[in-house]
């Protein structure tokens, strides 16, 4: 029987996907439970900063497009 604490670490892309879904508040309880054991905290921080920067850039772009037209 495999030890649940010995699960393999998640990849950066998996961490990025988890962060993006959490921005929308669409995480299932089962995903949250498994993620807490697998996700690397450094990946989460980097993915969070990256996702926030992209989100801000998209908002700025939308505002510029609306103001110009």
Which key features would you list for this structure?
single chain; 69 residues; mainly alpha; 3 helices; 0% strand; elongated
Major sheet size, sense and barrel closure: none
Helix and strand content put the structural class at: mainly alpha
Radius of gyration: 16 Å
Seen as an oligomer or otherwise, the chain set is single chain
Instruction: Domain count, please report it.
Output: 1
Which series of helices and strands comes N to C?
HHH
In whole angstroms, how far apart are the ends?
A: 62 Å
Helix content: over 70%
State mean pLDDT (0 to 100 scale): 82
What topology does this entry show?
Blueprint: H1 12-24, H2 29-38, H3 41-68
Give a quick rundown of the structure.
The chain has 69 residues and is mainly α. The protein contains three helices and no strands.
Task: Please explain how this structure is put together.
The chain has 69 residues and is mainly alpha-helical. The protein has one domain (10-68). It is built from 3 helices and no strands. α1 packs across α3 (41-68). The termini are far apart. The mean pLDDT is 82.
């Amino acid at each position: 029987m495999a030890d649940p604490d010995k699960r393999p670490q998640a990849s950066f892309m998996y961490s990025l996907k988890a962060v993006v879904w959490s921005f929308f508040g669409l995480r299932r309880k089962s995903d949250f439970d498994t993620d807490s054991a697998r996700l690397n905290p450094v990946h989460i921080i980097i993915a969070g900063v990256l996702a926030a920067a992209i989100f801000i850039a998209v908002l700025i772009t939308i505002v510029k497009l609306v103001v110009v037209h």
